[in-house]
Amino acid sequence: MTVLATLIPIALGLGLLGLAAFFWAMKHGQFEDLDGASMRILIDEDDELPPTV
Amino acid sequence: MTAPHPPGPVQSLYAVEGMRCAACIARIERGLPETPGIEAARVNLSARRVRVDHVPGLDEAIIIEAFKGVGFDAHPYAGEEVESAKSAETKALLKSFAVAGFATMNIMLLSVSVWSGAGGITRELFHWLSAIIAIPTVLYSGQPFFRSALAALRNRRTNMDVPISIGVILATAMSLYETVTGGAHAYFDGAVMLLFFLLAGRVADSMMRARAEGAVTALMKRLPREATVIENGQQVRRPVAMLLPGDRVLVAAGERIPADGTLVEGHSEVDRSLVTGESLPETVDAGAELLAGTVNLAAPVTMEVTAPAEASAISEIAKLMERASESRSDYVRIADRAARLYAPAVHTLALAAFVGWMIAGVGWHQSMLIAIAVLIITCPCALGLAVPVAQVVAANALMKAGILVREGSALERLAEADEVLFDKTGTITLGRIDAEGLPTSPERRAVLAALAGASRHPLSRAVTCALEGTAQADVDGLAEQPGLGIEASVEGTRWRFGRPDWVGTEAPDHATKALAAFGPVGGEASIILFDDHLRPDAAAAVAELEALGLPASMVSGDHEAAVAAVANAVGIEGRARVSPEEKAARIEQAEADGRKLLMVGDGLNDGPALKRAHVSMAPSSASDVGQTAADYLFFGESLSPVPRAVRAARRTMKVIRQNFGMAITYNIVAVPLALMGKVTPLVAAIAMSGSSLIVVANSLRLARAAK
What we know:
The complex is a heterodimer.
Chain A: H1 2-27, H2 34-40
Chain B: E1 10-16, H1 22-31, E2 38-44, E3 49-54, H2 60-69, E4 74-76, H3 85-115, H4 120-141, H5 143-154, H6 161-180, H7 188-208, H8 215-220, E5 226-231, E6 234-239, E7 248-251, E8 261-265, E9 268-271, H9 273-276, E10 282-284, E11 289-290, E12 295-296, E13 301-305, H10 313-328, H11 334-360, H12 364-378, H13 381-400, E14 403-405, H14 410-416, E15 419-422, H15 424-428, E16 429-436, H16 442-453, H17 458-466, E17 476-481, E18 485-490, E19 493-498, H18 500-503, E20 514-520, E21 526-534, H19 538-547, E22 552-555, H20 560-570, E23 573-575, H21 580-592, E24 597-600, H22 607-612, E25 615-619, H23 624-629, E26 632-634, H24 641-675, H25 681-700
Parallel strand pairs in B: 15-22, 15-24, 22-23, 24-25, 25-26
Antiparallel strand pairs in B: 1-3, 1-4, 2-3, 5-6, 5-7, 7-13, 8-11, 8-13, 9-10, 9-12, 14-26, 16-21, 17-18, 18-19, 19-20, 20-21
Helix pairs in contact in B: 3-4, 3-7, 4-6, 4-7, 5-6, 6-7, 6-12, 7-13, 7-25, 11-12, 12-24, 13-24, 13-25, 14-24, 16-17, 19-24, 24-25
């Protein structure tokens, strides 16, 4: 049963990690525009670069 | 003003039609900042909105023009701040929801081991671990319920949150007692799962909540803050609030008229669309009545103020709207109606269980456990999800079909509507002036494009729109004659575009249409007609509404001939020259007769009616007042979103009723079990999640509601 002493903290730790990640994502506006994100990946950033002098 | 630092950019929201792809996003976000004054644009594709960062005071028209330049139709989106209190509330609930979800999963993991037979020291360890997770979670995630329950109790009322709070707190406290004394059953999983499911409902509900607060503020924004007053022959700038009847005010061309009054000197044209809904400009001469908030188009005029600012027509509309929204807030949503019946029943049952088992002599500990089981089992998990989840799924489906639901109870109210009242301009018609009879020869078109392109008059803009893509001729000596038109020379010939008598031709007798003439001075001139066209499928949409059992009629502030023409084309009854007060009064009368009206309108003049009606819709091209007053916004040129929304709302209500039925069936089965003391934490967990999942699954069928 000593394995529990290791596994339960790991399980809880991973859960908390996920929770922290969700809080971070929400704070940084990751859920503001869910449809847009799937489109933005297609935008080519290269043509936006200013011409090199 | 010479400020050392330029003021920072301000943000405005625009509702934009037709954004669908990556290229659209890129075009808007890169194209817009090329317009001077616009610093950045950010597209929100889910909400079909664009946030524009621009210098303060940049004209709306310039930003809309910039959108046109990249190929999109945009309208200012009013009502919701970029970072509103409402979205903050949703965020807070979402956090509580996430915490409850985390706790539910972990406690469930521990509980499953206990249920499958973990005993002795392991069970005690797992109960303690559950307690360590559950107690902070209940304290954090339970707050929305505790706060609402406290507020209700303070007002000596009860709501759904009272049994929820009591249930959660008692279950947690009892479980803690069990844990300390080494008992067999702990309900931590039940308490936390309850919060999890209920918070899912709350998050969904919060997404649907009312966002329309600022209708009246938006209205008053339409008035300029300062006016140029002529005092002893001198021009003085003065706040509009200080204007008194008798003051003489100078209104420059292109300026908004600051107060109600009469024209004393000058000859100009006025765009009254904001107040009367009339899309064509009106010619005004000395003695004409001017309304605050309308735009002086052609030439500077002097006016005499007849009413102080707080008594102007626009302020009267604002007051009407305030009154109307008070009456609207009386509406009790279906979930709250259910809660009023449900909460006392639950309390009585739990109390009866406790008293009954005490009398039966099982002791307070056992009686308490059973009472808590009753509270947990009856806690309205499925009931709490029944309405909000169905509404959110339906609202998303409508959003994809180009209909925005702006109010939480709007779907319920739309499903009840049994009559439709349409406004004319901008609602049944497009509210856009189209030019007809443009010259056909390329030379003439090029000259006309050059003339019209140099003027900001609504008729010129209509011509510019119609001639888009035409190369402009090289002109010189361009001059705009206020009240007459615009003229310029091309290769020695003087061309004019403007009033027919000024251009040199006779105006034909058209009562309903605005017109202008175009031609060379002394040469052959042609007449250009301007008309506001019907929405392409207006008649079909009206017929569809009738088939759904909603007879339609039309009210308009416009004159008889124009109203009759539209009414006949669509096949409905129309009433002309109806003032904003009369529109609202008519609705009030109909509602007093027991009918529930759906008002579809767009203008400021429809504001009170939109607020007063049982439910209301506005096109996204509506004035910001119309937008904030309406429950639904629809995008695009078609009128078919109106019947579509009605159908979707009715389907939503059908699903909500099914959900209620299922939740109640579940209670009828589970409550006797709980009363008999047969509900262990395992049974409670299965019953709760089972009923919630069924309700959510049933609601998901609404994803196709707007088809």
